[in-house]
Prior knowledge:
43% of the residues lie in helices and 18% in strands. The chain is α+β, with helices and mostly antiparallel strands. It has 2 domains: 2-222, Gcn5-related N-acetyltransferase (GNAT) (Aminopeptidase), CATH 3.40.630.30; 233-317, no CATH class. Helix 9 (233-242) packs across helix 10 (248-255), helix 10 crosses helix 11 and helix 11 packs across helix 14. The model is unreliable at 286-296 (pLDDT under 50).
Amino acid sequence: MRILGWRRIEEGDLAACFKVQPAAFGDEYTSRDGALSAWNVLLASPAFDGVVVEADTGFVRSQIVGFGAAVFVGSDFIDAELRDPRPYLTARVIASVAAKQSVVLSEARMGLCNREGGVDMVVLASRWTQGLTPQDVRGVQVQLEMAFLKRFLGYNFRRLLAEVTDSELVEYVQKSGAWRIVQQFRGMEKPHPGAADEVRVLFMTDREAALSMPMSAAAPLFQATPPVLGLRPTDQELLLAAMKGATDRELALELGLTEEAVKRRWAVLFSRVEKSKPELFSVLALQKGTRISAAGRRGPQKRHRVLAYVWDHPEELRPFKS
């Protein structure tokens, strides 16, 4: 098997994802249709992110062999889970969405939490297909860790909570040293007779625990710094699209704007950046000790500088309520 890499999850991937990890479906407290509807709601939520890992198995060119998903939730939900640890963590998140009493944060709340005490997250799934070789398992693990860091670096994390439902994965999480066991569930009462009967261990990590293991995958998540560019949501939207390598014409199509409107957005963004971090553009001009040259003022060079900066400073592209 050859690991092809990871990509963001799409609605059409859900069936394959839950074949990889049936326990992640979270239908223990709601109907299967209700759980599927809740997952579709989550896919459209700014507080949710998920990825799939694909592989060339020799029989299928791009088969999903790994699945990871997580969601930002309210601190009161995490507080309640830690006070009274119970099995079926994912199912409670899914049931809250299905019942339209969601514990998932809105984008505005994410911005407030990100600025103040920090955001809390529930890891809904992180698993791979059964029967893989140890080498293939490690390959999927690496892809999921890379994807998790790529999707979530730059947030001001407070706590991460995850319920692990496989003895092999329990051992893997414990080896990282960054997660502590909150509760192990054995002989627990099932929500309904058809509920899966896996090992269930509730893990948590926070800033202190993660940073105590600097080589762990969790450590970089707790090293965020506040943004300095003062970007607006429209600026972030433009940059996120531009980071895919799109031209202004392609940006106009993706954002539903005219090319002229895209150019105006760039101009406003450059003006904002120049006020908050003028040195980002001044380096363009310091060729042979001269002042900013005409070439240094050109939009493409400014765009390159801004894009390079936000690649290295993902906090600039995260919700942050100022």
